[in-house]
Amino acid sequence: MPLALLALAVGAFGIGTTEFVMMGLLPNVANDLHISIPAAGHLVSAYALGVVIGAPLLAAVTARMSRRTVLIGLMVLFVLGNALSGLAPGYHWLLAARFLSGLPHGAFFGVGAVVATNLVAPERKARSVSLMFLGLTIANVAGVPVATLTGQHLGWRVAFLGVSAIGVAAIASLFLLIPRVHTDIPAVGLRGELAALRSLPVWLALGTTVAGFGALFSAYSYVAPMLTDAAGYAEGSVTLLLALFGVGATIGNLVGGRLADHSLRGTLFGGLTSLAVVLSLFPLLMGAEWSAAVAVTLVGTAAFITGSPLQLMVMEKASAAPSLASSANQAAFNLANAGGAWIGGLALAAGFSVTSPAVAGAGLAVLGLAVAGVAYAVDRGAAPQAGQERLVAAHVPESAESLRG
């Protein structure tokens, strides 16, 4: 695999770290800024809002720019947002800085996925995307715990300044490793990118992302009380168990990328089915400590098997202009985060057991399967075009030579 994928993975590592570290530092931020925990929780929402707004917006307005330049510019914005977070003099400044930090998130992954697929042979496109996402999953294993411990012992501001340093390393990696072959403006432009979103298959692919990852976040948002109240773990053990989730996500990401290069849709259906099964078994698996640890690992594996297939599916359906659609898929992922947590919370608010959010998540996974099934039926009903049978080989149109602008 090209070294350029390492540069994308470094950027993904920094983004994954800053996205999730705030959750572990909420008490520290709340105490330092003299705000309540719920108010500090708005800092998580501000970042997610930045992702949802920034993903399609930045991808659209940079449609005619060199993708290499776009990636570097997005990472500069990332560094700025995290540096301002670390230096924020008060709550409202920090809220604005977190929103700014979230703006480049979706566009980086969206444009990065297009770059990654054009750097490799057609039969390795899904694996190229999974290697970029590897930075995100490793962030859950190493980046978030280290940043959280740093923030708890040296102050939360130091944690965000440290994340900025990761961003600087990513900028250097992108500058040195992403090929600089063309500087011309891509032919597609804003109008072509927006036209891609008028496609029903694109929206069905995005809907699959919302439902499928909504299933994950319905359970994962409440996994801490499941582990303590149902499985009997001490609160101090939860961080280690969440690292197991990151291990499972890393395994699922790599396995999903490899399998998707052989059967994209089969991998997607298999991942969603596995996710539904694992989540439906949570009430049983949370009955003992050992099986709860297995459950946390398996749910990460099952969910992230679908990551690369879903990203490529969206890019396939918007083959003439994949950057905006690919970035929109990241916005869909964050909508899944918010929507899944809301649905899981409804199950708890209704008085069901502490594991009920996982059961609700299983229902969302089944919904994701249904949406994916409708997308498959739409594809079957469309007349096949010559040369488009091989999904990952033909539906991301730019060659490696035309990419490097």
Automatic annotation (TrEMBL):
Looking at the record, the residues that make up the Major facilitator superfamily (MFS) profile domain are: 4-380
Please list the GO terms describing molecular function. Answer: transmembrane transporter activity
Q: How does it sit in the membrane?
A: Multi-pass membrane protein
One GO cellular component term noted in the UniProt record for this chain: plasma membrane
Keyword Transmembrane listed: yes
Instruction: Provide the alphabetized UniProt keywords.
Output: Cell membrane, Membrane, Transmembrane, Transmembrane helix
Q: Which CDD domains does UniProt cross-reference here?
A: MFS_NepI_like
The record, for InterPro entries, names: MFS, MFS_dom, MFS_Efflux_Transporters, MFS_trans_sf
UniProt-annotated location(s): Cell membrane
Residue ranges spanning the membrane: these are 38-58, 70-91, 103-121, 128-148, 154-179, 200-224, 236-255, 267-286, 292-310, 331-352, 358-378
Name assigned to this protein:
MFS transporter
Please name the taxonomic classification of the source: Bacteria, Bacillati, Actinomycetota, Actinomycetes, Kitasatosporales
